[in-house]
Amino acid sequence: MWAGLTILSYGLFLTLPASWSGYVVGHDTLSHLIISRHFVDQLWAGDLYPRWLPGMNAGMGSPVFQFYGPVPYYITALFRPLLSHDPEGWHQLGLAASLAVMASGFMAHAWLKRLAGERAALVGAVLYMSAPYHLAVDLYQRFAFAELWGFVWMPLVMLFARASMRGERGAMAGLSLSYALLIMTHLPTTLLFSWVPIAYVLWMAESGDRLGAFVRVAGGMLLGMGLSAIYLLPAMTTQEYARFDIMGSGHFDFAKHFLFYAPGRGVDANDFLHSLGIIAGAMMLVAAGVWLMGRQTQSGSERREAVFWVVVATLAFFMMLYPSKPVWDRVAIIQMVQFPWRFGIVLTFAMVALAVLWADTLRNQRFAANPAPALILGMILFYQAIPTLKDYLLIRHWSAVPRLNRLMEGIADADASTRSLLDAAKISRYNSFLPRWSNPDLFADTPEAVQAMKNLTTQRGRATLVEGAGIVNVLRWQPPTIELAVKADTALQVGVLQLYYPGWVARLDDGSMRLDVSPSSPDGLLEVKVPPGTHRILIDREPLPEERAGQVISGASLAGLAGFALWLRLRRSPN
Hey, is 299 helix, strand or coil? Predict the structure, then answer.
């Protein structure tokens, strides 16, 4: 009970600036606000898995949740009925971010109790919540909402991987569920972290059971991939439909994001890398320090565990530095995480594990006789809480949930790029995961691009005549379901104010005849070919084959998991 109250109260203290008003001035705050609001709106309107968000990009739509993990936004949606005064979704997002930090503390505590005693596990949970990369960077500097929720599921994955290694009952089911949640939360975090439980089992398992332990853990993770296939399969197999080339070039080129030194970066960007480098360096020093202090008094198994985590920490830190570039060049798959400094996720995890193993060696010491360990822990905690203390100084800004209009008024003298970003947010423009056929000039981070999108969406109707002679009227506009009435004197080309993306279908009259759909040039809007005559046209989006296959695989995996659990229950029940 006391551990739970400590985690809850400390988590509330750390995240009160975010949860009270819901507004955190972070790099990605507006992006997450936009996609969260549209996702939650569609979910509560009855779309159980919103993949296409039709209201985004000034009403032209976006396929963002074809590729982005939905789990954090389902959790955000739980706050909607409680916050009717929050139409833009600030409060919902802030509360969900606060919940992520607190939940990460509880999950870390559950895992760390398997490594050490109760007091050491509580210390670790507190450190995990307030670790600089987790709190200062992901919450208060970047507002990396999905990555923040990734910190919730990683301890669960390690908890059940460790239990699966030991053959504990129900562990594989727990591993598959927690790994599926991690996958459906944030793929870059999944990619960076997935090798850790596998390596842990190979290092820590008894030599006589190493193969069996590996099979159990790998099998649980594979089943987790099956459970998450409803999201994972289309996200990984339909990337040709989006401009993923943009997400790996220019600003997003991984070679420009190494700590301390990254060629081709501007002064401001390098300042960010230097500050992030100091944070990562401090975490590495803590990891190395507690490992050195603990190794003299640890038992054989504890020392073996500590060696594993210090190696993980060292590898993670190395992968954040420019000398690791040859590895990044040769192992192309890790380039999908975009930023080498994202290895701070793994470094944080390893640092906390090492701190707990060290703290556990102090359980029989009297701090009155030797106050140094308590002083060290206190200094670490205080250092990690600094970002929150700085935000407490801005308490005057907590009084009301901000609105985009108010923010626009408050930055009349701001630079053009900041005004452009806020102006883009007002029309829900989102320039990630763009359809391959879209016009990149509409999504550039410039005032001209924002104005061009406004002009495009305000000067034309929702459905317009592009080619031919006739009349077109909108009967129903509830994208992705659109109904048109067309009187065509000749064959027509009808333009619809939604971005083209595979899955759009158009049917004529009674639905027996499908019409050709194609992207317009250069803007990539949906166009439909209509034959002469008077017609009613129904336009909708159908699941892609990859989406249907993912649904089948997830359903089969869930049925298999339920069947396995039932078999175990019957096997262990008395006759």
Answer: coil
Structure tokens at 481: 């379901």
Q: What is the pLDDT of residues 287-338, one digit of tens each?
A: 998 898 888 888 888 899 999 999 999 999 999 999 999 999 999 889 888 8
Torsion of CA 156, 351, 187, 159, to 10 degrees: -10
What are the beta bridge partners of residue 473? 485
The CA-based diameter of the chain, rounded to the nearest angstrom, is 96
- How far apart are the two ends of the chain, measured CA to CA in Å? 38
Nearest-CA neighbor of 495 among 455, 513, 468? Answer: 468
Cis peptide bond upstream of 480, omega within 30:
yes
Q: How far apart are CA 575 and CA 313, in angstroms?
A: 50
Q: Give the pTM.
A: 0.91
State the DSSP H helix or E strand holding residue 504, giving kind and residue range, or none if neither. Answer: strand 504-508
User: What is the 3-state composition of the chain as percent helix, strand, coil, each rounded to the nearest 5?
Assistant: 65, 10, 25
Question: Which two structure tokens, joined as six digits, stand for 272?
Answer: 């960010």
447-497 pLDDT, tens digit per residue, is 888 889 999 998 888 999 999 999 999 999 998 899 999 999 999 999 999
Number of CB atoms found within 10 A of residue 155's CB? 26
